């Protein structure tokens, strides 16, 4: 197994619930999927796939999502990991 595939497996295991966390946080903040997606310049379908664990969160998407919650990506992931 190469480093890249090992890292990918570890990252997927560690963050497999990230989409659900995003959805719950978005709902608690009072945003609809469409409104939040519009505010962060993301296609609603892409955000839906992320939230439903059908699409992995890429760095550029993470940056947009975190900014939608007024957080840096590091702050957002730290918050996620603490829950």
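-> sequence recovered:
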């Amino acid at each position: 197994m190469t480093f890249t595939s090992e890292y990918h497996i570890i990252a997927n295991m560690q963050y497999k619930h990230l989409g659900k966390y995003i959805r719950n946080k978005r709902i608690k903040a009072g945003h609809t999927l469409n409104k939040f997606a519009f505010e962060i310049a993301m296609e609603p379908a892409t955000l839906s796939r992320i939230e439903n664990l059908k699409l992995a969160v890429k760095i550029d998407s993470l940056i947009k999502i975190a900014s939608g919650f007024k957080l840096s990506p590091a702050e957002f992931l730290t918050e996620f990991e603490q829950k």
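Residues 1-10 have pLDDT under 50 and may be disordered.
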